[in-house]
Amino acid sequence: MNIKLISLTAALAFTSAMAQNYAGNPAETVNQAPAGQAVAPAPVEDSAQVQAPAPTPAPAPAPQAQAAPTDTASNSPFDVLRGNAYNPIENQAAASTVNDNLASPYKMAGAKFVYLEPTDDFAAVAFGTDLTKFLVFTNHENLGIITAGIAKKSFGFAVDFAFAKDLVLSETTTAYDKTSTTSRTVGKGDIIRLTFAAPLGALDFTASGYWETFDTEKNISTEYKDFDSKSESEEDNDFWDLGVNAGISNTPSGKDMFWSLNLALKRHENYTETSVNKNESEVTHPDAYIYIQPSFNIGLSVLQSSNARVLLGLNTRLPIVFYDEIKDENSGNKDNYHSLGIFTSPNILAELALSECWMIFGGAKFDWTIFSMNQGEFISDYDDEYDMTKVEYTLISSKTNVTTVTAGARFQYKNFALEAGIEDSFYNNPFEGFNGNEFIGHVGGFIYF
Questions:
Q1: Count of CA atoms in the C-beta half-sphere (13 A) of 264
Q2: 76, burial (CB in 10 Å: exposed 0-12, middle 13-18, buried 19+)
Q3: What letter would DSSP give residue 70?
Q4: Could you read off the pLDDT of 39-65 as tens digits, one per residue?
Q5: pTM for the complete prediction?
Q6: What's the CA angle centered on 118, arms 113 and 123, to 5 degrees?
Q7: Cβ neighbours around 17 below 10 Å, total
């Protein structure tokens, strides 16, 4: 029998039973306007077909939120603070999730809750009266990351940090010589990020800047001495991303239509410098690049009733990547590459309030590479300027990619709420969770105060 039909039938039966047992008032609502798209940049697709490696995405901050709490409760059953299982398709007109509000910190003003999500090792708490304070624990690149911030209705500020640093001093001495070594290591995922957000009349503004290592960096200095000689060597790696993100949206004034405009900039540094007895050499690796990505999201309500709604959205981005020129003075080689594209994701989000305690939701997005172009040139063989092979190429592509569909449910009773979303893998093999794999996408619970 179809496993999806069995799952749906069981879920509806369970829902009906629980709604009868737990009839009561819904959780306290917070007037939340729509969520937005994360401003972290994504590389141009199909870059595996070009000579230079594809850029890695910027660290993924939570999606940029589009809602700030107000003192007035909304009459809509959907305008409540949601868990991170909600709206993975990033529909711009949807209600805000915890990650959304953390990404635009002024929207945490007035919040009083604790949220725990064991499936993603995520925990958040917000408290305070005149000034809201909030704290988040989660993981990033196999490191624990802490987010701390403050918020008022007029502004919000947050800092994220994760550290992985080592300093090793070593000295070996014999009767004839001595070797001293100093090693400094910064681990992959070491990050510091600052975020500021504020309402600006009919719009709101969010900006963030970050520095992160995408691979383990080492700086090793060695000094050797004996009776007759002395030598020194040093190796220094720069494997980091430095980026800024900024965005505006119509959150304060939006009603049936919501939009956001974002810009992401990133420098991906991939560089090694060595020195042996003052003789220096420098290497810029092929995937060093500068990344620029403007993006625009829009969402609106197309169907609405007292207990159901359907939201339609479109998320579009235009990434541009400029790779560093690679020069080889010995062979005369000079390589350079760049890529750009237009990518869009039409999306649908539907919600249905079954009772005061139960709500179900689901969404779908369609990924579409409207246009993608990669261009470059390099010298593959070089003897002198009259005997060389120069290659120039252009790759242009367009592709309708994949459709993704998600589903989930929310149970709320008084000041408690629980939300969960189902992964596609659950339908393919509902028992895989017992083998140590993820059973469902996200499960998170609130206690409101």
A1: 27
A2: middle
A3: -
A4: 333 344 443 333 444 454 444 444 443
A5: 0.78
A6: 35
A7: 10
